[in-house]
Write a structure and sequence with these properties.
Layout: E1 2-4, E2 12-17, E3 22-29, E4 31-41, H1 47-51, E5 59-63, E6 67-68, E7 87-89, E8 92-93, H2 106-112, E9 116-119, H3 123-133, E10 136-142, H4 149-158, H5 168-171, E11 177-179, E12 187-192, H6 199-205, E13 209-214, H7 220-224, E14 230-233, H8 244-256, E15 260-263, H9 265-273, E16 277-294, E17 300-312, E18 319-321, E19 324-332, E20 338-343, E21 348-351, H10 366-379
Parallel strand pairs: 4-5, 5-7, 6-8, 7-9, 12-13, 12-14, 14-15, 15-21
Antiparallel strand pairs: 1-4, 2-3, 2-10, 3-9, 4-10, 11-13, 16-17, 16-19, 18-19, 19-20, 20-21
Helix pairs in contact: 8-9
């Protein structure tokens, strides 16, 4: 990625998809060029949490909502220390933010962090194209001296694909840190950081859990050195088929019978640990309005998603695994994609979506309470 931040608003920009489709607009954020996987997010709010979600590493995010930037950028809502998206695509950026919490414009924040974006694009047409053709590599080019279309397309096709990408260690913490429990400490949880969002350990801390966040490369010995009552595997970017170390680590946890909870990438890791395969979705689920049914209760939840891969597990039968019986606990009502797994003979479960509600609805907050119940049961 090469960037400049001077005078982006009137600078021409071009978006080039790997199948040759081209969209023209104006630079938004930094000026330069960037590459990644083109994906779309259906959330109408919460763009700051989206931008700072490490699961979006190496992805160019297309916002389906036409008007973006209304509330500016504040210093409270970021889910990590930086913006992780490799590029940003909007149709109609707000000219002036309107929020008492705003500290700067979204355009200014993108430019300050060197994130190349494009505005003035027909994002409806772009989204329909990605739905029909699938997520694909993309490049955004901006500046007064743009390359010719053939050169831009060749550069896009040379960019790495998401399939086969091992990215979790690139976004995870390199040193263990602790998020203290709020109020009385009830439990200790070892959280494996595969790209964790800041709100996730906060939600556990609200429930009296002291959370030790460990690097993605942590060993079994390092994991159990904190004497955990439970183990958590976080969300994160990349292809789960490459995540051999997290899979081996999770299998060690399952063998010991420690209560276990995984979300998003953690769900895919549990799937692999149980012997199921994973596969790449055509265009993935991203946004804060995805309907999921909890099969254990029959309840339908509106949930927050950010994933391009899924677990290949049987929807309607209980499967025998190395760690006992397993079943699909949650399913997406849009396309029947597996959205959750649970073991029937060990204290372990996972979901494919984001129950921490940052940004997003609060329908799935009960999952943290379910994790607490597992740890209470184990202690009893």
């Amino acid at each position: 990625m090469t960037t400049s931040t001077r005078g982006a608003t009137r600078v021409p920009a071009v978006l080039v998809l790997e199948d040759g489709r081209i969209f023209r607009g104006r630079a938004y954020g930094a000026v330069g060029e960037t590459f990644g996987e083109a994906v779309f997010s259906t959330g109408m709010t919460g763009y700051q949490e989206t931008l700072t979600d490490p699961s979006y590493h190496r992805q160019v995010v297309v916002m389906t909502a036409p008007h973006v930037g209304n509330t500016g950028v504040n210093d409270e809502d970021a889910e990590s220390a930086r913006i992780w998206v490799s590029g940003y695509v909007v149709r109609d950026p707000a000219r002036v933010p309107s929020s008492w919490r705003s500290r700067r414009t979204l355009d200014e924040e993108l430019a300050a962090q060197g994130v190349v974006g494009i505005s003035g694009v027909d994002t409806r047409a772009l989204t329909r194209h990605l739905r029909e053709r699938g997520a694909m590599r993309v490049g955004i080019f901006s500046g007064n001296a743009l390359p010719d279309e053939g050169t831009m397309l060749a550069e896009v096709r040379q960019a790495p694909e998401m399939t086969g990408a091992d990215l979790s260690a690139e976004v995870a913490t390199t040193e263990t840190y602790v998020v203290p429990a709020q109020g009385e400490k009830k439990f200790t949880v070892a959280a494996v950081d595969l790209g964790i969002k800041g709100m996730t350990p906060y939600r556990m801390a609200e429930r009296g859990i002291e959370v030790h966040v460990l690097p993605a490369t942590a060993s079994v010995e390092e994991l159990y050195a904190v004497n955990p009552d439970g183990v958590f595997f976080s969300n994160g970017p990349g292809d789960p088929a490459t995540a051999d170390h997290p899979v081996a680590l999770m299998r060690a946890v399952l063998e010991r019978g420690t209560p276990l909870f995984g979300i998003c990438f953690g769900n895919q890791i549990l799937g692999r640990a149980l012997g199921f395969g994973t596969y790449k979705l055509k265009y993935g689920h991203r946004g804060i309005n995805q309907p999921v049914q909890d099969r254990t209760t029959g309840k339908v939840e509106v949930t927050a998603h950010n994933h391009g891969f899924a677990v290949d597990a049987p929807l309607d039968t209980v499967a025998d695994t190395l760690f006992g019986r397993a079943e699909v606990s949650h399913v997406c009502l849009n396309d029947n994609v597996v959205e959750g797994l649970q073991l029937l003979d060990k204290p372990a479960f996972s979901v494919q979506y984001h129950p921490e509600a940052a940004a997003g609805p609060h329908d799935a907050a009960y999952l943290f309470d379910r994790f607490v119940s597992l740890m209470e049961g184990q202690r009893a």
